[in-house]
Amino acid sequence: MNPATVVDHDDLPVELDGSAVEFEGRDHGSSISVILVSTDEDGAGPKLHRHPYDETFVIRGGEALFTVGDQELVGRAGQIIVVPAQVPHKFAKTGTGRLEMMDVHASPVFITEWLE
To answer: Where is the Cupin type-2 domain (predicted)?
Structure first.
């Protein structure tokens, strides 16, 4: 049996103008990849994009406005939003308080098609 892999948060690459760190599973023996978002900046978030796999957003604090296909919805702390593969989506931090979110990519590597 192989031992567990431990990765320190500070060793992960920083993205989204410093508001997120990326864990790419392939580099650590994992079948998933994760983005950890932490920001106070209103409007912070990625532009419209899609992936060839599902993406699951676990909102731990704050809120964000999500565009998922033709649907707009506000995601709040305590909610989980699942975006199916190939569906265009984006989010932007809204409301008061810090947005704390874990974005789980069902892939050992990030594969993103930017649409705007």
So the answer is: 41-104
pTM: 0.92
| Identity at 13, one-letter amino acid code | P
The model's pLDDT over 20-68, given as tens digits with 9 standing for 90+, comes to 999 999 999 999 999 999 999 999 999 999 999 999 999 999 999 999 9
Cα 104 to the center of its chain, rounded Å = 6
Question: Sheet of 63-68: strands edge to edge?
Answer: 71-76, 63-68, 89-94, 49-50, 113-114
Q: How far apart are CA 41 and CA 25, in angstroms?
A: 27
Backbone angles phi, psi at 69, to 5 degrees: 60, -125
Q: Write down all domains in the chain, each with its CATH number in brackets.
A: 25-114 (2.60.120.10)
DSSP 8-state secondary structure symbol assigned to residue 16: G
